[in-house]
Amino acid sequence: MAEALLRVERLLKTFPVAGRRGARLHAVDDIDFTIAPGESLGLVGESGCGKSTLVRLIARLLDAGDGRIVFDGTDLAALPAAQFARRPERARIQMVFQDATDSLNPRFTARDTIAEPFKLLARMGRAAIEPRVQEVARQVGLPTELLSRFPHQLSGGQKARVGIARALAVQPQLLILDEPTAALDVSVQAVVLQLLDRLRRELGLAVLFVSHDLNVVRLLTDRVAVMYLGKLVEVGPSEAVFRAPRHPYTQALVSAIPGQGPRIKLGGEITSPIDPPTHACRFHGRCPRGEDRCGREAPALVTFSAGHSAACHFVGQPPVPRAAELRS
Amino acid sequence: MPEPTQPPLLEVRDFGLEFRTRSGTVRALEGVNLRLRKGEIVGLVGESGSGKSVLSYAMLGISDRAARVTGGAALFGGLDLLRADEGTLADLRGREISMIFQSPRTALNPIRPVGLQIEDVLRRHAAARGPDLGRSLKAHAVQALREVAIADPERRAHAYPFEMSGGMCQRVMIALALACRPSLLIADEPTTGLDVTTQAAVMDLITELARERQMATLFITHDLALAADHCDRIVVMHAGHAVESAPSRKLFASARHPYTAQLVSSTPGERSALADLAPVPGQLPDLRRTDLPRCRFAERCERASQRCRTERPVLDAAATHGVACWHPLGEPLPTATASCEVAHG
Amino acid sequence: MTTTAAPSIAAPADPAAQGSTLGHVRHVLSENPVTLLAAGLFVAFVVMALVGPWLVPYDPLASNASRALEPPSAAHWFGTDALGRDIFSRVVVATRLDLGIAFAAVAMSFVIGMPLGLAAGFLGGWWDRIVSRLADTVMAFPLFVLAMGIVAALGNTVGNIILATAIINLPFYIRVARAEANVRRNAGWVEAARLAGNGNVRIVAMHLFPNALPPAMVQVSLNMGWAILNAAGLSFIGLGVRPPTPEWGILVAEGAQFIVSGEWWVSLFPGLVLMLAVFTFNLLGDALRDIFDPRRRT
């Protein structure tokens, strides 16, 4: 079993709440997981669950409150985000954003956008950059004539390719995909997903794939982690998690996919991430399966079969050591 | 399910629309045929640029100013919506025909409590209020909120849109739209941007209310799977044309238009593998072109023949499974003697 | 969708309207006849400023008492003033000084105000507070009075007029830059820029600044008009440029006393030219913005 490329330990991030002194919004609450080199991990959860924050912590755009982000041996959390841009590690973790239009500077041509990482991270000169830009454009299927265009002159799919080309330019080891096809039409989405999968296999990238579209996550990932209100509630091999979800929240999510048959209805609105109770399950109240114990004791992430764990009192198997130690 | 012999509540016939822009005339819609019966839920599916939103806005008379109707009619209970004057349309909007929009928070007035916004609609169409039990407008507004499953409606009526989540705002918009019990509801991508569980809840709400009140619903979306889950019938649009109309299950199981088939196969489903996803080749044609083939899918279609370029296939809106194609799937392709020329996108 | 049902066509793969900056400039100018007019006038003024002094028929400083206060004629297109000097020559020669003052003042405001505003909008916190208070302080005064005060305190030189004009225009640039930076600091491409290795300074200079240019360009051109008026105004009341140096404000001042006695041309022509110059720069604002905004390139 290979040494983990990324190991996240007890990661915590809270934000102050405007207007309420002392109250903190727990965006990411004590999270552990790992990603092996070349592995694709999906991260699923609804808005407000903290996945955007988690992703920005790992990409070092934000500083964590506590915890470690160990990337290939180095704890990145110890390096301040404000100075991370100039460090050599910057080139090794890259990200593709959700809204391709928003992620491209409207005054930069596609070429300028893709060339920038070469210029700043690989410190290459202009002459050396141009052939590399063309090469990476070819890799992502972007016709080289389009390189001189501005974002408003490109279609949705083309903009997505520019974003991907930029992320791949300096050959990162970990690529974070933040809902990369959310803003695209279904036919373009298929093309981009196939492209991402091909690149992942060809370049041996490790991928953290964030999405709320479960069908898409299932197609592209080896393992998947489900997040709810700042905590991981289920982690396991993608097929297993989708076919037989063990946590009630995952079960509700999977049943809500169109075409999945009878839907599990969740009561009420999502609970607030502000000062959540530490001695109760956060899903208690919306969970179709709640009992007294859920309000008194927060469930730990428990492994019940190879690499598959869930944080619920009713998973049914005897507790085993924390799932963070195990990998698929 | 509505009876097939009932006359349609809404009948769109040969509807054409264009936009005059600085860079040319965009032929946004051409020859669209559509029928909606009382109590029927129809999904209008298409990619961005297919004209689905443009169609609904035109019917309500709220198109962009650059829009010009080039032909056809949209008959609603005998009245042609496209030729009605603004006064008549204003009376209809909210009372007989309602619309829900895509971005709930931006579609609501941000500086007015939601309860008051519902009261505004009720006041405007005073004559059409529901069962009139002599209750005040406020009580009616609270009742409208209760009907869309908003908890604690008396208190929520005083809330502003920014205090509510996306899903709740969408419910408020539904309450607004249904306050006067319209007979036709147009829902324009009501769940885009909402989470999967909220999306499911909102869709369930809309379809439940539609069935309860026998309200015809036109549900516009780009998500084919979502439409299939909740609609009785689906109409597929491509580049301003209505190309196929069929009951949902049938459309998925045996699509007849090549575009529909490709849309279906590029939608990730439960059992698909990544390699199975077959994207639709080519791109939407530029609708400003004057040399467009008569069937606008011809340049992307493997089955295209000379006829497809010169004659426009028409969708029979009355048929159970109608298709606008000269060589629909399931029928053999024309032989070499019948002047065929296969085009590649 | 921002407008009701405007067609959302995928941006067309249209190679035809691409291309050079020059082509784009030409396109912008030809789009709107008013823009073309403004551009033409602007060029005329610049030419006047550059080569005017060599082309004028008379020496602007040469007085000729025998030909004092003559109305416009074939020999003197704008007539002569109280000292017999040709008004036309004086007006043309004044162009260089007026445009020069305005240009220098606006350039100074821009170069100082934009970075301050961008930093304030992007970094927020203390930067924002300090810079905003600075701008607020300047704006608290009636601007012309403040300019008067500065020139009176520092001395009547052309340099001080430029400085005073630059100071009173500073808040406009600070505000525009700050607003643009504030709106865009959370944009996806700013985050993406960090991922590509940009530190804060590079983000402000290479990413935010170009995006703040289009609205800033409108400010620049409006400011030019305002700066010309300011310089003329200061000279009119006796601060700033001293006679006999020709400057539009001074020319108007010199003619003011003769309006009542019927020699209307002494003030009128300089006034008209002044007005035309301000008008030109105001019109030019929109054209400049269009030239600088790549989104107009379709």
Radius of gyration of chain B: 21 Å
Radius of gyration of chain C: 23 Å
Please name the two chains that share the biggest interface, counting residues whose Cβ lies under 8 Å from a Cβ on the partner chain: A-B, 35 and 39 residues
Structural class of chain C: mainly alpha
Report the mean per-residue pLDDT of chain B as an integer. 84
Percent range for β-strand residues of chain B: 15-25%
Oligomer: heterotrimer
The biggest sheet of chain B amounts to:
7 strands, mixed
- Helix content range of the residues of chain C, please? 55-70%
Number of helices of chain C: 10
Question: Got a strand count of chain B?
Answer: 11
Identify the overall geometry of chain B.
globular
Strand order of the largest sheet of chain B: 6-7-8-3-9-10-11
Structure, described:
The complex is a heterotrimer of chains A (328), B (345) and C (298). Chain A has helices spanning 51-58, 110-120, 126-139, 156-168, 186-203, 214-220, 238-243, 248-255, 292-296; strands spanning 6-16, 24-35, 40-44, 66-71, 74-75, 93-96, 174-178, 206-211, 223-228, 231-237, 302-305, 308-310. Chain A is an alpha/beta fold. In chain A, helix 2 crosses helix 3, helix 3 crosses helix 4 and helix 4 runs parallel beside helix 5 (186-203). The radius of gyration of chain A is 20 Å and the shape is globular. The model of chain A is unreliable at 317-328 (pLDDT under 50). Chain B has helices spanning 52-60, 86-92, 104-107, 114-124, 137-147, 153-156, 166-178, 196-213, 224-230, 248-253, 258-265, 306-310, and strands spanning 10-21, 24-36, 41-45, 67-76, 79-80, 97-100, 184-188, 216-221, 233-238, 241-247, 322-323. In chain C, helix 8 packs antiparallel against helix 10 (265-292). Residues 1-18 of chain C have low confidence and may be disordered. The A-B interface holds A 46-47, 155-156, 185-191, 193-194, 197, 212-216, 218-220, 252-253, 256-260, 263, 265-266, 268-270 and B 47-48, 151, 165-168, 195-201, 204, 222-226, 228-230, 262-263, 266-270, 272-275, 277-280, 283.
List keywords for this structure.
heterotrimer; B: 345 residues; alpha/beta; seven-stranded mixed β-sheet; disordered C terminus; C: 298 residues; mainly alpha; 10 helices; 70% helix; elongated; disordered N terminus
Task: Offer a concise description of the structure.
Chain A is of the alpha/beta class.
Can you lay out the helices and strands and say which pair or pack?
The complex is a heterotrimer of chains A (328), B (345) and C (298).
Chain A lengths: L5 E11 L7 E12 L4 E5 L6 H8 L7 E6 L2 E2 L17 E4 L13 H11 L5 H14 L16 H13 L5 E5 L7 H18 L2 E6 L2 H7 L2 E6 L2 E7 H6 L4 H8 L36 H5 L5 E4 L2 E3 L18
Parallel strand pairs in A: 3-8, 3-9, 6-7, 7-8
Antiparallel strand pairs in A: 1-2, 1-4, 4-5, 9-10, 10-12, 11-12
Helix pairs in contact in A: 2-3, 2-4, 3-4, 4-5
Chain B lengths: L9 E12 L2 E13 L4 E5 L6 H9 L6 E10 L2 E2 L5 H7 L4 E4 L3 H4 L6 H11 L12 H11 L5 H4 L9 H13 L5 E5 L7 H18 L2 E6 L2 H7 L2 E6 L2 E7 H6 L4 H8 L40 H5 L11 E2 L22
Chain C lengths: L20 H11 L1 H23 L31 H37 L1 H16 L2 H12 L3 H27 L3 H8 L4 H37 L11 H9 L8 H28 L6
Helix pairs in contact in C: 1-2, 2-3, 2-10, 3-4, 3-6, 3-8, 4-6, 5-6, 6-8, 8-9, 8-10, 9-10
